[in-house]
């Protein structure tokens, strides 16, 4: 992987973790999933994240998943991974070192793990400095994970992150174009790229300088996000039609995610069980399944339309 382009612009799905009915990680299904993402043209993969149910995975499982994804991707696209979920900073450092040893292109720091909910940005910066020192020569990213609490990166902290030269990726979850604009200005001219997790604001955020999309809806129709990335600049009318649909379609996230995403992937032909550790799959009602079937049918029709639409 070219070190200068290890975080390319575009679509970075937040990967799911398939489980067997006996509650083990299903690596056969995970390999199917990796190929499904790549066949749809995504630009990178974000493994061991909240969509992966990282807070419900053992350290051994987190390491095995990161290593497996990196190995099976085989340098076709870059892979980044998180997974430092401990409360203790020392334990987090050990987790980060082990994730780094899997060979992923970047290790993603969870913003709410670096400092407590009531602690200042100064505490965050101090702890981040310790991590950078203890885990040298590794490229890092940042994820504003909503769980167990959402800690958004301030403009001043982002400027500090830029100054380190070590942080190249931010998965932003503020869902606010005003804040995104401030953040984009803070990192302008640097190698720190901002990826929007919010579908509704995606096109506008691209226009202001965001590098792409990294969100849960890339577990349903990543090909439409890839299409938006490829046309938003050259074909603004087509991009707006895509944006209008993607923003509305993202309401699927509020059903029973990630169970509904796994059901969608079943419809795509992947052998992924509906089993999750964070949600009860038995709560996935028959009416919800019908909604996902209709959602997928609409996606297929809309994808065909958009691929050939010239406006």
Low confidence ranges: none
**CATH homologous superfamily annotation:** Aldolase class I
What is the architecture at the second tier of CATH?
Answer: Alpha-Beta Barrel
Strand order of the largest sheet: 1-8-7-6-5-4-3-2
Q: Structural class given helices, strands, pairing?
A: alpha/beta
Q: How many domain units?
A: 1
CATH class wording: Alpha Beta
Our measurement of the CA-to-CA distance between the termini, rounded to an integer number of angstroms, reads 36 Å
The H-and-E topology, N to C, reads as: EHEHEHEHEHEHEHEHHHH
User: What gyration radius follows from the Cα positions, in whole Å?
Assistant: 19 Å
Largest sheet: 8 strands, parallel
Provide structural commentary.
With 311 residues, this protein is of the alpha/beta class. It has a single domain (3-221), classed as Aldolase class I (TIM Barrel). Helices cover 44% and strands 9% of the residues. The protein contains eleven helices and eight strands. An eight-stranded parallel sheet has the order 1-8-7-6-5-4-3-2. Strand 4, helix 4 and strand 5 (140-143) form a beta-alpha-beta unit.
């Amino acid at each position: 992987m070219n070190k200068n382009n290890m975080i390319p612009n575009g679509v970075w799905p937040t990967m799911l973790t398939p489980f067997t009915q006996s509650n083990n990680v299903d690596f056969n299904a995970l390999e199917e999933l990796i190929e499904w993402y790549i066949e749809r043209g995504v630009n990178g993969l974000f493994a061991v994240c909240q969509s992966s149910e990282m807070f419900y995975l053992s350290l051994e499982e987190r390491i095995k998943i990161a290593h497996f994804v990196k190995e099976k991707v085989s340098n076709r696209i870059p892979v980044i991974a998180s997974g430092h979920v401990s409360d203790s900073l020392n334990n987090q450092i050990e987790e980060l070192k082990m994730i780094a040893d899997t060979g992923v292109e970047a290790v993603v720091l969870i913003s709410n793990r670096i400092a407590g909910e009531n602690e200042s940005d100064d505490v965050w910066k101090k702890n981040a400095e310790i991590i950078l020192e203890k885990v040298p020569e590794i490229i890092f990213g940042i994820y504003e994970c909503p769980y167990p609490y959402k800690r958004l990166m301030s403009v001043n902290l982002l400027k500090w992150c830029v100054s380190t030269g070590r942080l190249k990726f931010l998965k932003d979850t503020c869902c606010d174009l005003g804040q995104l604009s401030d953040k984009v200005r803070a990192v302008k001219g640097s190698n720190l790229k901002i990826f929007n997790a919010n579908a509704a604001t995606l096109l506008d955020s691209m226009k202001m300088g965001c590098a792409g999309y990294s969100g849960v809806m890339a577990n349903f129709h990543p090909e439409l996000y890839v299409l938006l990335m490829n046309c938003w600049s050259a074909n603004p009318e087509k991009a707006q039609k895509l944006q209008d649909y993607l923003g509305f379609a993202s309401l699927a996230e509020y059903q029973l995610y990630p169970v509904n995403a796994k059901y969608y992937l079943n419809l795509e032909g992947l052998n992924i069980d509906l089993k999750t550790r964070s949600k009860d799959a038995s709560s996935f009602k028959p009416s919800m399944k019908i909604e996902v079937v209709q959602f997928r049918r609409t996606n297929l029709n809309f994808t065909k339309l958009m691929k050939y639409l010239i406006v």
